[in-house]
Amino acid sequence: MRRIFWGLIRFAIGFGLLTYLAKSGIVELQTLSRLQTNWPITLAALALMAVDVLMMSLRLSWLLHPHGLHLPVDKSLQLTFLSFFFTAVLPGSAGGALAKLFYAAKDNAGRRVEIATVVIFDRVVGLFSLLILALASAPFFSQLIATAGALRILLWIVVVLAAALLVLVVVCLFDGSGMNRILRQILSVWPWTNLPDRVIATIGSYRRCPGTLLAALGASIVANFSVVVVAALAVKTLHPHDFSLKMWLVIPMGYIANSLPLTPGGLGVGEAAFNSLFKLIGLGGGADALLCWRIWTLPIVLLGFAYYVQGLGRSIQDLKGGTERRP
């Protein structure tokens, strides 16, 4: 009952923010009618969303393979659709990741730690690629950044986050003993004494297959670039006068804010973040663009709901035939 209560509270906050944005004129709901007359752009956006889903599915499948875990692409697609559904109904993107973790680890009792580590690592690769996209466009807008102090601060935060993630992964890959000691300190209150060993060993194994890491990062960049283009298409459709290349600088940051676990799917929070970020670069239509993205993701969310109702069988096959290992 407590979880249901807080879930309802988050939904109420999300819809309250969205209502405020609509009444204040930040979100212009009437502009959404332009989607009917610009259906070619809608079709292009749906195609890009399909690319996003496919790349995310391939990324997880590739990252599992070095551990003797086989996830067929069709099963990975189902997990990705399912994660989109849970992302839409649970706070931020964490709900989707937890759902993917649950269904991926199901019927693989002996490899749950490895599977959970890979699923979390998969999210880290996705976040890192989104940060890279934000930084990659910065050199092209140096004059804008120089005159916008708030934007400059945000970019420095992106730099720090990207560097922290990179250092964390590098340490896990090449200095497992040091990270192991840190994890043991963090998990000292838990009875799972060899959990850090298994987590570090899982990440450290990618040292022997750098091609897998590069392929996963490449797939992430393609996936995130696709959704950035989707947001740009939304602006082109709803607010063509605000369409500008400057959007590439802030759209990735907006998606990061939308993934914060505050309201279901970032509802309201994401729109407010997009609106503020677009204002920083002198553009409007940010909130409408994210709302349009939500509409375009509905087919994916509904398909994920269908898989949830149908139920997923075993998704991952353990090629090594691992047995239960108690942490």
Helices and strands, in order, run as HHHEHHHHHHHHHHHE
Oligomerization category of the chains in this entry: single chain
Instruction: Report, as a whole number of angstroms, the end-to-end distance.
Output: 31 Å
Coarse shape: globular
Secondary-structure-based class equals mainly alpha
**Biggest sheet record:** 2 strands, antiparallel
Please sum up the structure shown:
This protein is an all-alpha fold and 327 residues long. The chain has one domain.
Structure description:
The protein has 327 residues and is an all-alpha fold. The chain has one domain. The protein has 14 helices and two strands; from the N terminus they run αααβαααααααααααβ. It has helices spanning 2-23, 34-37, 39-64, 73-89, 94-105, 112-136, 142-147, 149-174, 176-186, 195-204, 210-238, 247-258, 269-280, 286-310, and strands spanning 69-70, 317-318. Strands 1-2 form a two-stranded antiparallel ribbon. 41% of the residues are buried. Mean pLDDT is 81; it is low at 323-327.
